[in-house]
TrEMBL record, chains A, B:
SUPFAM superfamilies linked to this entry: Winged helix' DNA-binding domain
One Pfam family matching this protein: HTH_5
InterPro entries tied to this protein: ArsR-like_HTH (IPR011991), HTH_ArsR_DNA-bd_dom (IPR001845), HTH_MetalResp_TranReg (IPR051081), WH-like_DNA-bd_sf (IPR036388), WH_DNA-bd_sf (IPR036390)
Keywords for this protein: DNA-binding, Transcription, Transcription regulation
Domain spans labelled HTH arsR-type: 8-103
Name of the protein in question: Transcriptional regulator
Species name: Chitinophaga cymbidii
GO molecular function terms attached to this record: DNA binding; DNA-binding transcription factor activity
Length: 109, 109
DNA sequence: GTTTTATATCGTAATATTGCGATAAATAAT
DNA sequence: ATTATTTATCGCAATATTACGATATAAAAC
């Protein structure tokens, strides 16, 4: 149906999946890498940088903001977007945790 | 349109996004955690474990297999699925790399 | 005050994902 | 041989995502 049965899974499982989904698009990866590089950014740069329409970039920025990965503050007529340091760390730890919780012993097959 | 403009992004950006997408669903997180715990697994267990229909589980397993995160070998009438150790490591490293490539200095706003 | 600049939001189209019943295919059990 | 058991695949419906033009909004520049 296209609707995820979130209630079947634990809070943590839904959380990890949501985090993964947030970075599950190359445009959002590119945005994050660009924000990381410049450390101060306005959306206009991204439109040139990525080659997507302004509306599309804005939409991706919104998703990253909702996920908590970036934050934006109004700077005159522009908006200054940057990475949210605290949540970035949370993401890193969440993924690191997920991938190391699993101790793989050779596999079964 | 629902179609991602992959050609606008680097190979690596597309790769990271695809990896994230693969684990961007709680059912797939749950499957991976379960596989990691049991280390030997058949799909039947997952149907009971997760509460999703067999067809749905099979579909998620296929996606995980396509992403390279799991592997399956035919074991009589069943299929033994398990984590693909090498690729698991690759995923871990890819995410760790992505999150630490970014050195956050306080943020800009 | 009008015009430009920067960003967000709305509406819409195209495509993707999620989920499941039904059915197929292949082995195991009887 | 026939009947379970196990998994994959097909077909479909519901919903989500991606993308963009058009438009709104708000500050800056003139």
């Amino acid at each position: 149906m296209g609707i995820t049965k979130s209630d079947l899974f634990s809070k943590k499982q839904n959380e990890i999946a949501a985090m993964a989904k947030a970075i599950g698009h190359p445009a959002r990866i590119a945005i994050l890498q660009y924000l990381a590089k410049t450390n101060t950014c306005i959306c206009g740069d991204l439109v040139e940088e990525l080659g997507l329409a302004q509306a599309t970039i804005s939409q991706h920025l919104k998703e990253l903001k909702t996920a908590g990965l970036i934050q934006g503050s109004i700077e005159g007529a522009s908006v200054c977007y940057c990475i949210h340091p605290g949540n970035w760390k949370k993401f890193r730890e969440q993924f690191a945790g997920f991938f190391s919780d699993v101790n793989i012993q050779g596999g079964c097959c």
